[in-house]
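Quick one: structure for this chain?
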Amino acid sequence: MKSTTKLIRVDIAFLYQLAGMTVDNETPADLQMKAFSAYRAAHKRVAADYEKLASARKADGSTAYRLEAIAGLAEPRDGAKVFALWFASADDFTRAAKVDLMALCGQRMFDAAYDQGIPSYFVGVRQMRKLETVEWAEIL
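Got it. Here's what it folds into:
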């Protein structure tokens, strides 16, 4: 799925653009430190959401998403690895699961960045969401 790879590259690009950015009096290093905190927070929230999703799916007899492997194996300090792992298993998910997974990961990164006070993240997240709505049909 070449389009999926393209999505990974776009997501990593927007995460790592923080490395060369300055916001007000914050240096790139300050932003990068906040970004790592946001990755960790998002990682924990995805894992927590998986537990809720898995419990609900087990209760109704359906197959749980394989988010535990993705959330569990990702190193929280490595934002690129987190996103790569999330999307690397895209072939293993149904269409509905892919949409849910993309929304879950995007929302958790958006929330975690907001909590850390990273306004520059919002530009990147909007770009990611545009790709999600515009290009997702081509992938599936």
